[in-house]
């Protein structure tokens, strides 16, 4: 009786329209692992990593972005599933699914295409809705090629194919990645999608590719297989995808047959999830985060609450949550149904289990201690290049913790940001060489 009285709302089950049940309200947010082998295949590192997370009493695990095209990846060590080679990694995919679904945990494959955010060393002329180049400090990206009708139809078919492989492998659902500036979110953004055909212009046209993908997956896999989609709350760019656009596209996407919607925000130029607001040369300063939102921890909760008023499917909010009280408040106030957690799980895969049991009341804020040193080199530096270095350096620190977990090593909390960034760049360089060798 005492246990029932003290149960958190976070421990409640979530019932989806597909008939599936998620055991609690915590979702491990998708974080790119960058641990694939040189052929971009799943391997034993993914299996070890997700077995650890599945032991942490998390209701839903979202994988890092699994790519549909080796020519358009977020990083050289991504997993890629293509029709010509997928059978070669099918046994590992099945083992990955087995490990990630232990203890009644859901494991959903996040499916993605990097679009114009494909690094230049992977593709110097990546596909995109329109030829609008990405330019941010310290990174090199190619000049994108505007997609033909055939290119768009091919991408739709590839998303559907990878969803079929996910189900065949034993994953319990999928998520379509349409956030953070990758291909599908590029279609949604009017400053990046300059098309005048049926794939551009109105919000209905800019959302059309999402509808075609969702309907195609539903036709192939039926109504009992969960489909999620990750959507930007806004791009935070002048003339970009706005909060109003997000509300409209969410309604269109729900009608196509979605089970649950995840709300996040930002792009490489406006990386809100890195704690940075202004790497772009053209930021939308009217979209500064409100103080009330920061006090509540969740970066995108206000946006999600507005979207929730217009749709009936559950919403996941990811970004910034650290205390149990804030998570409970968000769900209790009907702003969302699930809480997405990412970075704290890189250094402590059992932290959610500790939070739900009452052993701890908040997740560790590792970001607070991660910078290169003096104020001028800190994330609050006025210099955009320094901001970028700190943001990507902190991101590298979390990548390194993920890689250590995948090797069955303990996290190294004493690792400096500089050491992490140096190691990460060296590993990425080696992965690029392996990718070119495989090609």
Descriptive labels:
439 residues, alpha/beta, eight-stranded parallel beta barrel, two-stranded antiparallel ribbon, 15 helices, 11% strand
Task: Please give a structural write-up.
With 439 residues, the protein is an alpha/beta fold. It has 15 helices and 13 strands. The protein has helices at residues 2-5, 44-54, 90-100, 149-169, 183-188, 203-206, 208-221, 243-257, 291-295, 301-308, 324-332, 344-347, 351-357, 384-406, 417-438, and strands at 14-15, 21-22, 26-28, 60-62, 66-67, 106-112, 127-128, 145-146, 173-178, 227-232, 260-264, 315-318, 338-341. Helix 2 runs parallel beside helix 3 (90-100) and helix 14 crosses helix 15 (417-438). 52% of the residues are buried. Mean pLDDT is 88; it is low at 274-296.
In a few lines, what is going on in this structure?
With 439 residues, the protein is an alpha/beta fold.
Beta strand %? 5-15%
Largest sheet: 8 strands, parallel, barrel
> How many strands appear in the DSSP assignment?
13
The residue fraction in helices comes out at 25-40%
Helix-strand pattern: HEEEHEEHEEEHEHHHEHEHHEHEHHHH
Overall spatial form: globular
The helix/strand class is alpha/beta
Strand order of the largest sheet: 3-4-6-9-10-11-12-13
Q: Low-confidence parts, pLDDT < 50 over ≥5 residues?
A: 274-296
Q: Span between N and C termini?
A: 61 Å
Helix segment tally: 15
Question: Would you tell me the overall average pLDDT?
Answer: 88
Radius of gyration: 20 Å
């Amino acid at each position: 009786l005492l246990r029932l009285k003290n149960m958190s709302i976070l421990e409640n089950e979530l019932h989806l329209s597909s008939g599936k049940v998620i055991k609690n309200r915590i979702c491990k947010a998708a974080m790119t692992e960058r641990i694939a082998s040189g052929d971009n295949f799943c391997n034993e590192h993914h299996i070890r990593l997700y077995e650890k997370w599945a032991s942490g009493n998390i209701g839903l695990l979202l994988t890092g972005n699994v790519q549909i095209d080796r020519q358009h990846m977020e990083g050289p060590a991504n997993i890629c599933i293509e029709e010509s080679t997928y059978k070669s990694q099918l046994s590992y995919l099945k083992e990955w699914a087995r490990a990630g679904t232990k203890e009644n945990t859901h494991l959903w494959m996040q499916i993605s295409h990097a679009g114009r955010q494909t690094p230049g060393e992977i593709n110097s002329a990546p596909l995109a809705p329109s030829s609008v180049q990405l330019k941010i400090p310290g990174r090199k990206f190619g000049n994108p090629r505007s997609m033909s009708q055939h290119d768009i139809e091919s991408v739709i078919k590839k998303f559907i194919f990878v969803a079929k492989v996910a189900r065949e492998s034993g994953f319990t659902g999928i998520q379509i990645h349409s956030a953070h500036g990758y291909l599908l979110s590029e279609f949604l953004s009017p400053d990046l999608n300059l098309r005048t055909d049926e794939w551009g212009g109105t919000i209905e046209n800019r959302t059309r590719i999402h509808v075609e993908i969702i309907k195609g997956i539903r036709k192939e896999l039926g109504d009992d297989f969960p489909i999620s989609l990750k959507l930007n709350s806004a791009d935070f760019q002048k003339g970009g995808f706005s909060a109003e656009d997000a509300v409209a596209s969410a309604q269109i996407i729900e009608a196509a047959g979605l089970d649950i919607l995840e709300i996040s925000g930002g792009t490489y130029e406006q990386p809100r999830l890195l704690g940075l607001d202004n790497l772009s040369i053209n930021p939308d300063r009217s979209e500064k985060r409100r103080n009330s939102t920061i006090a509540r921890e969740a970066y995108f909760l206000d946006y999600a609450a507005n979207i929730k008023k217009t749709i009936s499917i559950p919403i996941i909010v990811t970004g910034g949550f650290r205390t149990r009280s804030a998570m409970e408040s968000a769900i209790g106030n009907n702003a969302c149904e699930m809480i997405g957690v990412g970075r704290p799980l890189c250094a402590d895969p059992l932290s959610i289990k500790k939070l739900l049991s009452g052993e701890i009341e908040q997740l560790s804020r590792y970001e607070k201690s991660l910078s290169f040193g003096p104020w001028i080199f800190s994330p609050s530096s006025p210099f955009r290049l320094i901001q970028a270095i700190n943001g990507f350096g902190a991101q590298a620190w979390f990548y390194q913790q993920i890689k250590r977990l995948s090797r069955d090593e303990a996290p190294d909390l004493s690792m400096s940001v500089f050491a992490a960034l140096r190691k990460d760049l060296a590993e990425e360089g080696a992965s690029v060489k392996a990718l070119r060798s495989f090609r």
